[in-house]
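Look over both lines:
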Amino acid sequence: MAKILVIDDNLDICQLLKRFLTKKGHEVDTTLTGPEGIDLVKNKSYELVLCDFKLRKMEGREILQQVKTISPQTNVAIITGYADVRIAVEMMKKGAFDYVVKPLIPDEILSLIDRATKESPNENRSTSESTVKSTGTRPKPLPESDYIWGKDKASAQLLHEVRLVAPTNFSVIIYGESGSGKENIARTIHEMSDRKGKPFVAIDCGALTKELAGSELWGHEKGGFTGAVSAKLGQFEVADGGSIFLDEIANLSYETQVGLLRLVQEKKLRRIGAIKDKEIDVRIIVASNEDLREAVKKGKFREDLYYRFNEFTIIVPPLRKRGSDIMEFAEHFLKLANQELGKDVSGFTSEVVNLFNTYDWPGNLREMRNVIRRSLLLTDKGEIKLSCIPQEIVYSSKFTFSDEDSPQNGHLQQHATDNAAAQSETKEPAEPISLKDIAANAEAEVIKKVLEETHYNKTKAAQKLGIDRKTLFNKLKQHNIQS
């Protein structure tokens, strides 16, 4: 049994909640105003305060602040309309336990109470340093993973937001460039939630064709369409009870978005060819490397679906903006590569460190991991030298070479000379040759060579280059390579 206080200026809601929760064995007090609610908190101990965000005499944010000051151990949940979800999320950052959206659903209220009474104040969602210092709490341990978070300010903020949203049931939009670790972040959110131990399903929406998307997501019955010789379980059914991660969500066709909206609204799906709906409980996490608001403006993405997903937003900084963490990631990937290849390479030369810190890393963490794996193959012992780093990376970054690792030594210099000669044939003699031009030409030549080796199979070529198909297509366009 929990002691609960309901603060809402709607008498019907107060009476409804008191009658319902009392039948469930809880002790419930109600009040129509914020000041009266504060007085009750001063004189009685509550485990949970359910507070409407919009009240006539006192706003929910002020009630939250006063309740947490008077009784830090009391959890506060916000009752809000759909249009105020963003404000409710902001209040969670300030210490609210969770929020519920009108119209109130009995099962959601009971679930909220169950979580609020099981969690001690020291396990609340705020994991900021100020909370740690004031209450002595320690953040929930991260799940074991090959992914590392880093210690830079940008990394710390990212981890704070993940810890904040993970225990809730919010839908999440993760923005980030290709290769920045969006799927790892989504998986961490799942592993740190109450759904841990249940399925986590990741889907690349860019790989779903318009014709097959419905079958892949919702499933189909035998004979549901031409060629459906047997029934198939859709990925949402596979993820039932757990979480589903929809990467590059903007690539879904408009028709598929309609089906997805229905599933999100009604929490039901219907297989293709079926006559009955099936109730489903799945937390949806989506990711995009383009702004979905812009996609909405262009008519590419449904506005109503965007607002359904946009309960919480996480922006993943690109690797080039991770500051001191760049080399921490590099050391981590070196450790993994040493284990994979059975080597014992100790680190990187100062020139490689300088290169890594000045290179743009357009492929982010995925590119770095592939670069280090390939470089390790060329390194027998000691440290990874500049001569082992892919040439297109070396010549696309501005830094100072040492005598040992200078491109004046070995095949790097020969490569630079060849590219300079090629450029001198196509440009005016008086035009200077820049490292940027050399790097661009080197990259184009590598791409052409790999395309030839893979017989112009772009999927295999992208895998061999250590990039995704979308990045490869951008490179082909950038270098005007016909394929």
